[in-house]
Write a structure and sequence with these properties.
Blueprint (H helix, E strand, L loop, with lengths): L1 E5 L6 E6 L4 E5 L3 E4 L3 E7 L3 H11 L4 E7 L5 E6 L5 E7 L5 E4 L4 E4 L3 E7 L2 H5 L5 E7 L3 E7 L3
Antiparallel strand pairs: 1-2, 2-7, 3-6, 3-10, 4-7, 5-6, 8-13, 9-12, 10-13, 11-12
Length: 151
């Protein structure tokens, strides 16, 4: 998989080239365009109850989309976030095995990344940041794409 983040810093988009057989999982609504031949499957992120908790308390979608290149050629997928802002990518695994994200920051991840919800506490809720955060963990080496606005 190759990727390039273009149009930084305010209107960033991720151009991902998937080799035959490769896949990437993205937040529902993140796909801006895709080549013909890529297949997309939609599923609840981690089951109904965890997905519902993420939606109600973490600001995340109930669903994720997995894009798979089932052809014999390279195919391109373009992902972006809902709001304006910059996009960053972080390689997880080894020393950096987990990342905690604000609601709405997650865009996409490779197949060796697991997404779950983490209790943030009442102090976080009182500060207007929500009761739960998104916890992104690696099950090996993997990439996570996330976005935000401001600094």
């Amino acid at each position: 998989m190759n990727y390039e983040i273009r149009y930084k810093p305010a209107f960033a988009a991720i151009f991902i080239t998937l080799e035959p057989g490769e896949r990437i999982t993205a937040e529902a609504g993140a796909m801006a365009s895709m080549d013909a031949g890529l297949t997309m499957t939609t599923q609840l992120m981690g089951g109904f109850i965890p997905a519902l908790l993420r939606r109600l308390f973490g600001g995340e979608s109930l669903f994720t989309n997995t894009f798979i290149n089932r052809t014999s050629e390279r195919k391109t997928l373009v992902l972006s976030q809902e709001m304006i802002g910059d996009i960053e990518v972080l390689q997880l695994g080894g020393d950096q095995a987990a990342l905690c994200l604000e609601g709405g920051a997650y865009i996409a991840s490779t197949s060796r990344i697991a997404i779950s919800t983490r209790w943030a506490g009442f102090n976080s809720w009182l500060a207007g940041e929500g009761l739960f955060k998104l916890l992104v963990k690696s099950k090996g080496q993997g990439l996570v794409f996330f976005g935000g606005y401001g600094g």
